[in-house]
Design brief:
Blueprint (H helix, E strand, L loop, with lengths): L3 E11 L2 E12 L3 E5 L6 H9 L5 E9 L2 E2 L5 H7 L1 E4 L6 E5 H13 L5 H14 L10 E2 L5 H15 L3 E5 L7 H14 L5 E5 L13 E6 L2 E6 L1 H10 L2 H7 L26
Parallel strand pairs: 3-10, 3-11, 6-9, 9-10
Antiparallel strand pairs: 1-2, 1-4, 4-5, 7-8, 11-12
């Protein structure tokens, strides 16, 4: 059965500042949606609100998963429903090993015990596919990791938790060419009948590895244009000035804060951070 994550006329902000001003978006499992746009137009705010970041207030609209509103749900509850968020800036958690963290998150999100043998087998397989170091299981979560290692660790969590929907917030920033290819190929292989993906990115290069079915341009807190890969090429060649000319939209950059805090036990994994 195909799962559906739907954002309906979403208005939201922080401290009386409106950031999202009527976002509409429907994502189905098996689909990849890319959101692009200038800095500060609400892209990261959207990802945080889908996951349940409490500092943002939804003033209008709804977010539903298979017809059920997730707005009343806490972060960990959304993670258990199958929403995963990978942040641009993963948090470091000293004293908690990667293996303990992921296994605990898997148990919390599924509500079932996780066989140690099965966990180790899948963990090692996923690490190999992501070309992660052999001692990863025993290292503290993201502590002392390079930027590329942190991003691959996010995808490792995603591979182990197997969410219904993955939201990747600028997962490509700070990655070198090889790490970008590894991350892109692993995400691309996961997308299918059991996983839908929302990519927030500034760069065309990530979309060389994760082919989007839909490309959305967000400006001033709204999705103003939806199309296919032709939009990526146009943005790469001309930036966003043509949007002002073709659609008559003045681009104003609202505050679009990045969230660096851990949202909950499953948030860093299942619905993440």
């Amino acid at each position: 059965m195909q799962n559906i994550l739907e954002i309906k006329n979403l208005h939201a902000g922080i401290e009386k500042k409106d950031i999202l001003k009527g976002v509409n978006l429907t994502i189905k499992t098996g689909e990849v949606h890319a959101i692009m746009g200038p800095n500060g137009t609400g892209k990261s705010t959207l990802s945080s609100i889908i996951m349940g970041q409490p500092k943002y207030k939804v003033t209008q609209g709804d977010i539903t998963l298979d017809g059920e509103s997730v707005l009343p749900l806490a972060v960990d509850e959304r993670a258990r429903k199958g929403i995963f968020l990978a942040y641009q800036y993963p948090a470091e958690v000293p004293g908690v090993t990667n293996s303990d963290f992921i296994r605990t998150a898997m148990k919390a999100c599924s509500g079932k015990d996780v066989s140690l043998f099965s966990f180790i087998k899948n963990f090692e397989k996923s690490c190999t596919e992501l070309k992660m170091p052999e001692d990863l299981a025993h290292r503290y979560l993201n502590e002392g990791f390079s930027g590329g290692e942190k991003k691959r660790n996010e995808i490792l969590q995603m591979k182990m938790l197997k969410p219904k929907f993955a939201i990747l917030d600028e997962i490509d920033s700070g990655l070198d060419v090889d790490a970008l290819r590894i991350v892109g190929e692993n995400v691309s292989r996961m997308v299918g009948e059991n996983l839908g993906c929302l990519l927030i990115t500034h760069y065309e290069r990530l979309l060389d590895y994760i082919q989007p079915d839909f490309v959305h341009i967000m400006i001033n807190g709204k999705i103003v244009l939806t199309g296919g890969k032709e939009l990526i090429t146009k943005i790469d060649q001309n930036g966003y000035d043509w949007v002002k000319e073709e659609l008559g939209i003045e681009i104003s950059q609202e505050e679009d804060e990045k969230t660096h805090v851990l949202l909950g036990s499953c948030a860093h994994n299942g619905g993440n951070k």
